[in-house]
UniProtKB/TrEMBL annotation:
Protein keywords: NADP, Oxidoreductase
Residues annotated as domain Rhodanese: 83-179
Coiled coil: none
UniProt keyword Iron, yes or no: no
Protein name, UniProt field: NADPH:quinone reductase-like Zn-dependent oxidoreductase
Origin: domain of life: Bacteria
Species, as recorded: Actinoplanes italicus
PANTHER family, sorted: QUINONE OXIDOREDUCTASE PIG3-RELATED
Keyword hit for NADP: yes
GO molecular function: NADPH binding; oxidoreductase activity, acting on NAD(P)H
């Protein structure tokens, strides 16, 4: 339960919610702590300050009463109501996606909407097959997913940019053709598409590497809320800068992409680094770097 914006949630006991008409009861198995959760709980998000107290968590995985494995979404922190960080939830049926047999729940929780965003960003400018793709922030969940999804989609090359040597080595293991430290982003080879979850000066440098008609898709600002973009670069190359958010997805499209993500995870084609933490330790895990998955 988040009782005060800017502070970690606390564990509280309360009766299990009863599903109303149009809702589905779910026993929760795992919930990721995502940047959106932290942003909403800070009280500084573009959705406004949420009413407290509320249960945070915009997504999770669990089981229906008949044992069916599902992924589900909530609007906690964005609109009034409780979220996924509870042992049991009741959510609208339209926000529930049945998972394929054998889907690894903890991994699906770690991937979740971050992988959905990576997939949709890759396709925001058409089919990535045969294209040279730059992935900024390759050490994050969106970046890791984008590398693998680009290769699965038939990208010609995938150039991964990250801060640490460890992240770059992992990016190569995931299938990146070229890896480049963030400090050397000005040395990017020519590309057709940039997946950008970080923005800032790196995004400006990546724009300069785009071929004429290329596209940069921004879906985050981990490195800065603004970027020093040169108008001449945009106009000279007839470049496109596209902003992406999962909030623009229809439930049907989200379900289709999430199902594909879960199928790839079940087949061992999609991985992401994450750290499982028991639910009772949510307070200490709240602001830990990397993807934490609360387990029940």
């Amino acid at each position: 339960m988040l009782r005060e914006c800017g502070r970690p949630p606390v564990i509280e006991r309360r009766p299990a919610p009863v599903a109303a008409d149009g809702q589905v009861a779910i026993t929760v198995a795992a919930v990721p702590i995502t940047p959106l959760d932290l942003l909403c709980a800070s009280g500084t998000s573009y959705f406004g300050t949420p009413a407290t107290p509320y249960v945070p968590g915009v997504q999770g995985v669990g089981h229906l009463s008949d044992g069916t494995a599902v992924w589900f979404a909530t609007s906690a922190g964005m609109r009034p109501g409780d979220g996924s960080m509870a042992g049991a939830v009741a959510v609208p049926a339209g926000d529930v996606v049945q998972l394929p047999p054998g889907a690894p729940l903890e991994l699906v929780a770690a991937l979740g909407l971050s992988a959905v965003a990576a997939h949709e960003a890759l396709h925001a400018a058409g089919d990535p097959a045969g294209r040279d793709v730059v992935v900024l922030g390759a050490g994050g969940v969106v970046g890791q997913a984008a590398i693998q999804l680009a290769r699965l989609a038939g990208a010609r090359t995938v150039i991964a940019v990250a801060r640490s040597a460890e992240a770059l080595a992992w990016a190569a293991d995931l299938g990146a053709t070229v890896t480049l430290p963030l400090t050397e982003v000005d040395r990017l080879p020519a590309a057709d598409l940039v997946i950008d979850p970080i923005f800032g000066t790196a995004a400006a440098a990546a724009l300069r590497a785009l071929r004429p008609g290329g596209t940069l898709v921004n879906l985050g600002s981990a490195a800065g809320a603004t970027a020093p973009i040169d108008s001449a670069v945009l106009r000279g190359g007839s470049l496109r800068v596209v902003g992406y958010t999962n909030n623009s997805l229809t439930p049907a499209r989200r379900e289709a992409v999430l199902t594909k993500i879960a199928e790839n995870a079940a087949a061992g084609r999609l991985l992401v680094t994450h750290r499982p933490v028991p639910f009772a330790r949510v307070a200490e895990a709240w602001n830990t770097p990397g993807r934490t998955v609360l387990t029940f």
